[in-house]
Structure formats: C-alpha cells, structure tokens
Amino acid sequence: MKISPTFLRWQLLPALLFFTGACFFGQIDWVKRVENLTLDQRTRWRTHFQEKGDPRVAILGIDDDSLKVYDRWPWTRRVHGQMLMALAPAKPAVVAWDILFPEVSDSDMAVVVGARQLPGKVIFAAYASDAPPDPAAPPPKAEASLRPITQIEGDSSKLYSGLSADLPVPRFRDVATTAFVDTPAGPDGVRRNVPMLVRIGDKVYPSLSLQSLLVYWGLSAVNVRVRLGDAIYIVDPKSPRRIPIDETGGYLVNYRHSIAGLQVLSYATVVTAFTEHYLQGKKHDDVPDVSGKILLVGQFSTGLSDNGPTPFSPESPLVLVHANVIENILREDYAHQVPSWPIAAGGVVIAVVGLVVSARRKLSFYRIIYALGIPLIYVAGATWAWVHASHALPVVWPVLGFAGLEVFEIARRLLAEQRAKEQIKGMFGTYISPALVNRMVESGQAPQLGGHEDEITAYFSDIQGFSTFSEKLPADRLVELMNEYLTVCTDIVQEEGGTLDKYIGDAVVAMFGAPIALPDHAFRACVASQRVQVQLGELRVKWQSEGEKWPEIVWRMQSRIGLNSGPCIIGNMGSRTRFNYTMMGDNVNLAARMESGAKSWGVYSMCAEATKLACEKHGGDRLVFRPLGRIVVKGRSQPVPIFEITGLKENVAPSAHECLGIFAEGLVRYYARDWDGALAKFRQSAELEPNVPGKTPGVSSNPSTVYLDITAHYQHEPPPENWDGTYVMKEK
Questions:
Q1: Structural domain boundaries enclosing 111
Q2: Do 72 and 208 have their domain in common?
Q3: Which of 104, 105, 500, 523 has minimal CB crowding within 10 Å?
Q4: How many Cβ atoms are within 10 Å of 45's Cβ, its own excluded?
C-alpha cells in the first residue's frame, strides 16, 4: 500500500511530533506539578463517590474538643496511660502512635503500665534524623522493639534514610514496637509518594503503616521480602500481599478518603467513655466498637504541629496519610501510574484519524466540536479511571499535545484559505467591495448572474453643486479632493456594515443589509449618514486651514444624503461577461429621490418614513428626526412621509431641539390650514435653525424658510378642499 507524501507531511508527521514532544514536555518539573494538581482535583472529586473507609481502621484524634478537656498540648503522659488502660478491655488489634515521645517524663510509667495491658499491640513512633547517632544512647532491651528487614533485593542506598533515629524513650521501647512515621513532602510540598521503608545506617526498618499491618496480621520482619522498584511482598499464607513500591521504597498513596470518609474518634471522648464503660462499670450504649481494629493515634487540631499539605487540603492531619496507606493495603487497592507511551501512541492514532477525516473539509462548527470534544472526552475518561479504578492517567501533556496539534492544523488551514482568499481579492478586490469579495470566498462558488429580494436600506449621497467644483479646480486637484472625500465616505459606510455599490462621479451609492444580513440596517445607515456629515465638517475646517491650496467653494462643500428602507432586488446584474453586485427596485428609486429631493426642503440628510420606523426599533433614540410632511415624488402617485435626519443626539444643540419643537407646531397649523399661525411658527423656528443661509457654509435654505414660502403661497392660493397636506414635488 502506497502512502501519499501529503499524508506523511501534513497528518502523520505533525501528530508524531506534537505527541512525542508533549510527552517529553510532560517530564519537566513544573509540568509535573501542574499534573499533580489535576490529580489532586480528581482525588477530591472522587471522595463524593466513595464508600465509607475500611471498618478495620479508625483514627483516635487529638482534636479541639480534646484540647479543651486536657488543656494545652503536650499533655501529661498520665492521660495517654489512662487512654491505653481504658482501651485494653475493648481489645483493639493495634494502637499505633503517630506522635513522638523522644524525651523522658516523670509520668512515663503511666504509659508503660497502659502499654503492658496491650502486649504486642502498641507501636510507638520513631523519626529519621540527619543528626549523627549518639554513642551514649542505650540500646533497647527488647530487640523486637525495632527489628530490621533483612530480605531486600536492589540498591538499598536509594531508600529514604537518616544518619540516626529519633526514638521513643527507652521505657516505651521496652514494652512496645517502634516504627518510622516519616511522610516527607514531595517537590511541590504535598505527600504523594511516602516511604514504606526507612534506612538508618546499614539497616532498613518498616514504616508505621507497614509495621501496623504486620502487627495486625501477627507477623514480623521475617515475613517481609522486598524487591526495590517492584514491590514489598508479605509472605504469609493467610494474608499474602504485594505492595507496589519504586526503587526508593516509595509508595504512591491512593488517597481514597479525606477525614470525612474515615472513622474518627475524639481522644477525650474515647478516654471518658471507655473508662466509665469498661473500668468503672457505667454502661454506655454509644461506646464505639474498636475490637480487632487498627487504631491510629494522631493530632487533629489545626493549632498543633503534625499537619501538612495533602491532595485534600493544605493543612491536613498527617495521620490521614497512614490511614489511607493502611486501608489501601488491607483492600489491595493500589494506585497505578499509567505509562506515557501507550497514551502518546493512542493520541497519535486519534489525531491522524481526525486530520484525515477533516483534510477535505472546511473549518467549521464540527471541527470546533472535535477540537474541544476529544480533550473533554479524554479528561472525563481519565477522571473516571481514577475515581473507579485508581488508574492515574496524565492529563496535562496529552491535552497540550492535542491542543498544539489542533492550533497547528487550524493555523495551517487558515493560512491555506487565506492564500486562496488573497488570490480572489487580488483579482476582484479593486472592482467590488471587500464584503462582496469575502462572501464570494466563503461561498466557494464563482459569481453568477441573478438576484433575490431582500429587506435593505438604500443609501445615496451627492455633492451639492459639484459641477462648479469641476470648473474651478484643475484635474489633478479635483482628483485629490474627491479621493479624500470619497475615502471618508466609504470608510464610514463600511465601518457601519454597509456595502459600497458604486461611485457615480461624486455620488456614493451603498446598501445596508446585503450581502450580509443586518437586522439593524436602517439604524446603521442613519448613523453612517450623520457620521459622514460630521466628518465633512471637519474636512471643511482642514481644507480652509490649507490656505490658497483650495478655493472658497471647497471650504463650503455640502453633501446631500437620501435613505429609504424596504424590499429590493439584490444580486449580480449585467451581462454574462461583465456584471456588478447591485440593487434595484422601487424602494431604491425612492432612496435616490430622497437624496435629490433634499435640496427642495433645505436639508442635507433625508429619509422616508420606512427608514425612520425601522431605525427606531434598533437604537433610534440615538438619532434626532424632523418630520417634513408628506410628498409625492416624481414618478410615484402615492404620498410618502419624509423626515430630516437632523443629527446624532449627542451632536444636536439645545437650540436645535427647540427649533424642531416649534417647527412641529407650525406643521400642525399648516395641516389645519391656519396659514397665519403656521407662518408665525415657521418664522419663529427659522430664527433657531441649525443651518442658516449666509451663515452656515454652503447653505441656501432650510425647512423653516421652505415652509414659509409654501405657506405664503397657500395663503394667497389655497389648496383644494380635499387637500390632505400632501406636497407634490415637481423635480426629481
């Protein structure tokens, strides 16, 4: 079977590089720390799905309530002796102390007497120290107190070790077993991998967890065989165990339970209840059953020293570590660190399949679902594996490898598509609008003749008196002026989402709502018209500041804009060899009439009622409109309400608002045939008009002066009785 070069180059090779690279990346220390944080989160999550802890294990906690009873820590050892005396009749299998007793006390005999009531069942704590051994320290009288493990295969120099041991006081060693409670923090400060074996000098001793289990099973060090890097083997027909360890004797704790999941007894409550029940004969129905159990005695109060970070909390009682280790071994419930290579191999296979399937498809929503779905499925699977099977799958580097591959693939595809777009833009971009080019690229189809009906807003603009400009400016200056003006107009139209249709000399023809549908096309068109007017005002100031470069007519340039909204025919119009994406229809013609008719009403932005109403649905309160009446434009028979777009609300002066109010009152009187009242109002509003002939550059009239003339005409020649206020335009 022949493998194509494209498959090797763009599918297999990237998958191999990203997943093998991510696998090596996952071995960096800080990445491992992040990985551990994800495992901690999974550990906390799975506590919600666990059964209660093993009933064979219980914790006797020195908690806040106990500190209230026995005052500040450390307590007199008579309290501990009383606890052992009270526990003895309850017949626990093991009483293991996660508390050090390194210094002699006057009340040591109380503990010794209590420990003798539980022969062979009490374990006191020792701790590995970096201090050199004290040659004057007396050896324990009973060898069984600290018996080393001798059956070891492998390099024991790698074991967790100390130069000496902080041992319990000699009297305690004479009556009980000793074991090491060391649970050193990992590189990130959390107890994850704890030593099951501790080397002091040339001898190897069991940890508190391992020794507790040996006592529980009635075994000793001779029943233990160690193969470093493999496991600790408990050699016993009744309780055989294989406890996995690494080459340092470390055990990966399979944290199943936080404090809430284990049986925890308050130290003070146990002492009081057990003393009264067993020693004083006062029967208690609620005395907990500890018969045959492993009891771990440890500090629980947050104010004490034996707390540290675990996956559950930054301040966990460290006796919790021993409890989880013991429960793991009792249930043979071990954590398994899944190797990286099968995950990397599986990632390569999945990635290659995904790349092959998507190779001939465009980037789409489904690709996004794939890119997000695969990591989510993997993380969910890794969580399930840890919650239900204690398999620790790495999460960070596989997700990073897949994400890196997806970013590479998406970038490669985008680059390829961008190159294709640039080719089309290079051919068509100078002739049609960028929006149309993009639509052509996205469709993947060659442009064709044809059109469809759509709801849009048509936009027409024209420079007032442009023929005069042509007479007064040489060709090069005229081109420079028009390029600057048309650039401003076009940029604003396109910024507001409009599509340039064409330039006709100085005229700009555009549409809003096609080819890209815009629900607020009318609002955008109205905003664009006023932004153009504002920008033109700034251009006039600029041109005037350039001195003799431009004649006065340029400083006074005004542009009229007409808008109308409604159904129009949109599409590619023309011949089979040359065509243009444009608009046509009655509503387009009406927009053109709004632009040309604006001159008759002395305004510079005019729209039909359809545009105003559509604009008001989408933020129309940002714009100020002035009703100009009802007109019949040339070429139509039905009247159309028309409006001046006075400006953006933030740019309309208070005097202009007052003018519009008075003007509206004048229109009311005008429709009522109150010619005198109308004339009075229009004269009053004329004084407040924002555009005043002789004062505002390029302005020759305004709506108030126009209506003064119309009203004066009707005052002398009244309209017919059936007149409804409609004005018939004689010009286009």
A1: 50-336
A2: yes
A3: 104
A4: 12
Structure tokens at 440: 């052509």
Amino acid at 204: V
pLDDT tens digit sequence for 254-295: 999 888 889 999 999 999 999 989 888 888 778 889 999 999
Q: Is residue 430 part of a domain?
A: no
Pair (231, 213) in one structural domain = yes
Q: What is the pLDDT of residues 454-506, one digit of tens each?
A: 999 999 999 998 888 888 899 999 999 999 999 999 999 999 989 899 999 89
Q: In residues, how long is the chain?
A: 732
Say if CB 698 and CB 533 are below 8 A apart.
no
Distance CA 210, CA 160 (A): 15
Cα dist. 458→255, 454, 621, 647 in Å? Answer: 70, 11, 21, 18
Taking the C-alpha atoms of residue 170 and residue 166, their distance in angstroms, rounded to an integer, is: 11
Q: Do 403 and 306 have their domain in common?
A: no
Host H or E run for residue 651: none
Instruction: Identify the pLDDT of residue 584.
Output: 93
- Are 353 and 10 contacting, i.e. CB atoms less than 8 angstroms apart? no
Query: Six-digit token pair at 723?
Result: 């007149």
* 85: nearest Cα among 267, 274, 268: 274
> What DSSP designation does 185 have?
-
* DSSP string of 457-514, one letter each residue: EEEEEEETTHHHHHHHS-HHHHHHHHHHHHHHHHHHHHHTT-EEEEEETTEEEEEESS
